[in-house]
Structures are given as C-alpha cells and as structure tokens.
C-alpha cells in the first residue's frame, strides 16, 4: 500500500462547554438527545463534531493560541 495509512472515517463529538471528548449519553425520552460531560459535569444538548482526534487537537491548539495572543 506504498506506506499509506488510511484512517478510519469517524467523527468525534465533544462537549460544547469545555471541548472534552469524555461525554456520555444522558438518556431522556421526553427531552431528546443529551449528553453529560464527565469533565465539567454539565448536561449538554449541543455537541461539536470533529473529523478526528487530530482535528480536535488542532482546533484546541488554535483556540489556545488565540486566547494567549
Ligand atoms: Zn464539558
């Protein structure tokens, strides 16, 4: 395969509050799809999706640099 590594296509969902990928489904039949974040312990409705953990890492790096500049 000429040394090419094709990464498995999957998205990573993160907390919209603290950008942690450590979110668990929080079930509620009447309230719809929710998650609970294991890092900030917020119940979140909106998640951010990234193409990969690398994309998330790049985003967080850019965000950090923007905040520090
Ligand atoms: Zn969080």
Overview of the molecule:
9% of the residues are buried. A hairpin with a 7-residue loop joins strand 2 and strand 3 (34-37). The strands form 2 sheets. The chain has a 3-stranded antiparallel sheet, with no helix packed on it. Strands 1-5 form a two-stranded antiparallel ribbon. The chain is an alpha+beta fold and 69 residues long. 23% of the residues lie in helices and 26% in strands. The model has no long low-confidence stretch (mean pLDDT 86). The protein has 1 helix and 5 strands. It has one helix at residues 53-68, and strands spanning 12-15, 23-26, 34-37, 43-44, 47-50. The chain binds zinc ion (ZN). Residues 15, 17-18, 20, 37, 39-40, 42 line the site of zinc ion.
Concise summary:
The protein has 69 residues and is α+β, with helices and mostly antiparallel strands. It has one helix spanning 53-68; strands at residues 12-15, 23-26, 34-37, 43-44, 47-50.
Mean pLDDT: 86
Termini separation: 42 Å
Work out the strand percent: 25-35%
Ligand types:
zinc ion
What is the total tally of β strands?
A: 5
Overall, the morphology is flat
**Count of separate DSSP helical elements:** 1
Order of helices and strands: EEEEEH
Structural category: alpha+beta
Strand order of the largest sheet: 2-3-4
Biggest sheet details: 3 strands, antiparallel
Query: Helix coverage percent of residues?
Result: 10-25%
